[in-house]
Amino acid sequence: MTTELSAATFKLAATAALSPAQQQLEHQLFTFINEHLHTPQPGLFVIHGDAGTGKSAVLAAAFARLQALSRSQTANPLQGTTNYLVVNHNEMLKIYKRLAGEDDQLRKKDFQKPTPLINRLAKTNQLADVTFIDEAHLLLTQPDRYNRFNQHNQLSELIQHSRVVVMVFDERQVLKLKSYWQASALQPFLAAYPHQQFNLDTQYRVTGSTAVVDWINHFTRGQLTAKPHVRDFDFRIFEDGQPMYDLIRQRDQTVQLSRMIATADFPYVVNHGTWYVTAGSLKLPWDKVNLTDDPWALRPETLDEVGSIYTIQGFDLNYAGVILGPSVGYDATTDRVIVRPERYEDQEAFKNRDDLGNLNPLKAQIIFNSINVLMKRGRYGLYLYAVDPVLRQRLLAL
Asked: What is the β-pairing status of strands 162-169 and 43-49?
């Protein structure tokens, strides 16, 4: 495995080890699997944690161990089990399948998108023994004919077709209404099954002081606090997008894995020409549809594109240049960050919900969630440019 691939993903480097909290999580997870593998009712193990807390790293390591035990020639309680890791995210699925080729105990067929797996298990009337779900907050909570999902909740279907389900869930990374969970709905849902929950709260991606993470957390709740200055994390706010891009290019030349990313505030239609993101004097094309097996962040040509939440969620960058588009603004009266859903160009995010009442607060939360995902990509640096001039001046004043 290349160093770049390890750095860009949740895959631990060869010399790395799980932290004590992650080791405790893995131990509890396997205890839970063994206890619930042969019980009448499915068991549900939920891993919570903010972006960058190592949820996927634990999940990937635990799944590799599970499959090694399943395929071991030595008798053990998990020998011969049929297990899957599911993720409703094309770019992350590419990483999982790529990593499968580097581990003798893993197969590409171990990794699936939810709808094809649900439909196949239902058609053959089969049960998976253990189903791992990464980014469970991206699962659908309503039918979606475009994705050939005709049932009502992908998590319910996966539980119905599994003996044990292990899922990563972060409500602050829900990016579409069709994946939305009401805060009051998840706990009663879990209560219907034997379940256990584990929270990871140590930040592993954003290096240095917790001050930067705290600043981002305040920002994504609409609050502005003094810009932190920390020695080992480069946090800058720019008056124009071009100098930010120039610095990102320099960072990529020296340490790689540095990219421009933006909120979904600029028009884009799939397979209909080239669409652009503008940031002051900067004009760059949106990321293209990626039909290769290589994730967006690992392809050299994407240094000349702007990535979206859909290409970068779940990945690590070394330096992230984040463009806050027109939907993100500032209210001088209250000194708060505001969002304008009517300016958000990802209308797919707001489609097809008539069961949630007033959608305006939920739409605002989805935009803030997308900002949270973008701002927590960089390990060593975060660069910000705000298209809205009032917000930009307020950020520069910090």
From this structure: parallel
